[in-house]
Amino acid sequence: MLERYVKRILQARVYDVAKETPLSEARFLSKRLNNTILIKREDLQPVFSFKLRGAYNAMAQLSDEEKARGVITASAGNHAQGVAMAAKHMGIKATIVMPKITPEIKVASAKARGAKVILKGDAFAEASQYAQEQVAEKGYTYIPPYDHPEVIAGQGTVAMEILRQYPADIDAIFVPVGGGGLIAGIAAYVKYLRPEIKVIGVEAQDAACLKAALDAGERVVLDQVGIFAEGVAVAQIGEEPFRIARHFVDEVVTVTTDEICAAVKDVFEDTRAVSEPSGALSLAGLKKYVQQNAVQGETLICINSGANTNFDRLQHIAERAELGEKREAILAVTIPEHPGSFKQFCKIVGRRMVTEFNYRYSDSRDAKIFVGIQLKDINDRAELIQSLEEKGYPTIDLSDNEMAKLHIRHLGGGRNDDVEHEQLFRFEFPERPGALLNFLNNLGQNWNISLFHYRNHGAAYGRVLIGMQVPEQDKKKVAEYLDRIGYRYWDESENPAYQLFLQ
Fold it and tell me: Of 433, 420, 503, which is closest to residue 465 (Cα–Cα)?
C-alpha cells in the first residue's frame, strides 16, 4: 500500500498551480520550548491553503470526457478555492456548493476564480448531499475534498517537500486532521522513507473523528461537531484516509479552542502570518505534546495549513489566546463588602496585571468579583489561587468555563432578585444575515425571556446565552421543545459562574 502511494505522490501533478512552500524555523517558540520547531508554510499557497495540491492532482487525472462535463464539489472553503483555481487553469467549468455558514472571505475567493457558487444548508453534510444530487441530475464530475487516492497523493507532496528540505533528523511531524486526506498522504510517504519519524495527528477536541475511529477500531460518526476550527469540522474520517491512518499514524493529540487561539498568536509572532484556526491546529498539538511528555532537544515540524479567516474573528481569537497559553486566569473571588477590601485584594495580586474586573453591589456582607489576571508562568495560577484562599478570599477558577469566557465576562454584576423560575441555556446557531431573528422565531414565545446575551465573533456560528422563566411543571416540556428546534444547546443553570454573578 505504501509503495503504491509513494509512486502516486512522486508522480502527482501539483506544481502547475501550487508551489513548494518554505519550512521556516520558529525561533521564538523553539527557544521557549527548548526544541527545534519548524513550520511548513502552506498558508503561502496561491489559495492560502494546502488544499490546492489535492484538488489539482485529482482534476489532472480526469479524462477529456469528465472534464467536458464540468466539475462540482462541496466544501466549507479551502477545497473549494483549490477546485476553483484548478478549474480556471484547466479551462473547466466548476460549480462549488458551500454551506451557508461559510466565511465570506472563502465564498468571495471561489467566485473570484470563476467558479459558480451555490450556498446550501447549514452544515457540510447538507451541501455535500446537494452536490451529489447535482451530479445525478446534471452529470457533473465530483471532486471529493479528501476521500480519494489522487487527492491524498496531492496532499502527500507536502511530506515529499519536508523530507527534501530538512534531510537531518526529524523526531515528529504534527498534522491537522479533518477528513484525513493530508495526514494520510503525509503518513504514507514518511513511513515508507523514514519510518522512525512519528506522524502525529492533531484534532480539535470537539471534532476528533480520527481519534474516535482509532479508539473504536472502525469509522464512527460524531454526534456533534464543534465548528470553531471550521476547516477541520468533520463528523467522520474518510474511508481511504482511515485505511492508511489506522496503520501508520502514531498517535492523535486533541486541543481546545483556547489552545488553538494561543497557537494562532504563536504563528504570528514567529512568522507574521495570520493563521485560520485549523491552520494553527497542528502547532497547538505540538505544544501540548511537548508539555505532556516533557520533550526537550528534539526537532518537531508542524503544518500551517491555511490562512483563510475573516478579519473580524481576530478579536475573539486574541481574547482567548492568553487563556490558551496559560498566561491569564479568569477567577470568581468573594471579598468582604467594606471599604479597603479591593485594595487588600490588589496587594495579594501583587505585580500581576489585572486584565479585567467586573463588580456590582450584591449585598452588605460579601462582594462577588469577576477578575482576569495576567500570569507570570504556567504554575502561577495555582500559586495565586492558593494565596487568595489563604487570605480568606474564597476563589473559583473559571479559566476553563466556556460560558464564563463567552458570556459572563460581558454580563457580570447583572443580578436580579425579582426573576423567578429562571433557567439558563447556551446556544449555537448557524451565523448568516437574519440568523438572529430566525433563531428567535424558532425559540417561540411560550416562556418569558429574562436574560439575553449575543456576540458576533465573525465565526460560522452565533453564540447566545438566554435566561427563560420556566415554571417547575414546564421543565420537561421546555427540554423537549429545545430538542425539537434542533439548535445545539447546553443547560447552564447549575454553572457556578451563573450562580455567582447573574442568579
Answer: 503
